[in-house]
From TrEMBL:
Domain of life of the native organism: Eukaryota
Keyword DNA-binding assigned: no
Cellular localization per UniProt: Secreted, Extracellular space, Apoplast
GO MF annotations in UniProt: manganese ion binding
SMART domains cross-referenced by the UniProt entry: Cupin_1
InterPro entries registered for this protein in UniProt: Cupin_1, Germin, Germin_Mn-BS, RmlC-like_jellyroll, RmlC_Cupin_sf
Gene source species: Solanum lycopersicum
Name under which the protein is recorded: Germin-like protein
Domain spans labelled Cupin type-1: 22-167
Length: 178
């Protein structure tokens, strides 16, 4: 009888320890920044409607603090992102897809991505971002439109092109490349 009682107590103790309630979640995005406003616009997400003209482009850019999910409502878009800084013996892999109305595509946080309207009419998409402040860096604007300009020797070596190509690119108007 004592052995059966010991077995029962041990079984109950193991069951109680194994089935303890637990909870896990990400911290609130509101804790990322000191928000000193009593405003309902601090929801932890961002939404944007993007209207693409025929052959319109959202140039290569990145959101350093947010993942983007794109839902296409109208038109056809060619979208893609590039894995960056892969491991040894790997290449920067490009992932692309042509979206039709109703399709969804996810761009991982911080990765270079783009959207191009390949349809015969305008396109409309909604983008949701996983942060109230995802940030955006448009690559061409940052590299070729900086003030003062990045030294053309640096860029020519980085892109492995002639300095004249860099000079020509730096002469473009990059402020409206969106």
């Amino acid at each position: 009888m004592a052995l059966a009682l010991k077995f029962l107590v041990i079984t109950i103790a193991i069951y109680a320890l194994a089935s303890s309630p637990s909870s896990a979640s990400d911290p609130s995005p509101l804790q990322d920044f000191c928000v000193a406003v009593n405003d309902s616009k601090t929801t932890g997400i961002s939404l944007a409607r993007i209207d693409f003209a025929r052959r319109g482009l959202n140039p290569p850019h990145t959101h350093p603090r947010g993942t983007e999910v794109l839902v296409l409502l109208k038109g056809r878009l060619y979208v893609g992102f590039v894995l960056s800084n892969p491991g040894p013996n790997m290449k920067n892999k490009l992932f692309t897809k042509i979206l039709n109305p109703g399709d969804v595509f996810v761009f991982p946080e911080g990765l270079l991505h783009f959207q191009l309207n390949v349809g015969k009419s305008n396109a409309i998409a909604f983008a949701g971002l996983s942060s109230q402040n995802p940030g955006v860096i448009t690559i061409a604007n940052a590299v070729f439109g900086s003030d003062p300009p990045i030294n053309h020797n640096v860029l020519a070596k980085a892109f492995q092109v002639d300095k004249k190509v860099i000079d020509d690119l730096q002469q473009q108007f990059w402020w409206d490349n969106n």
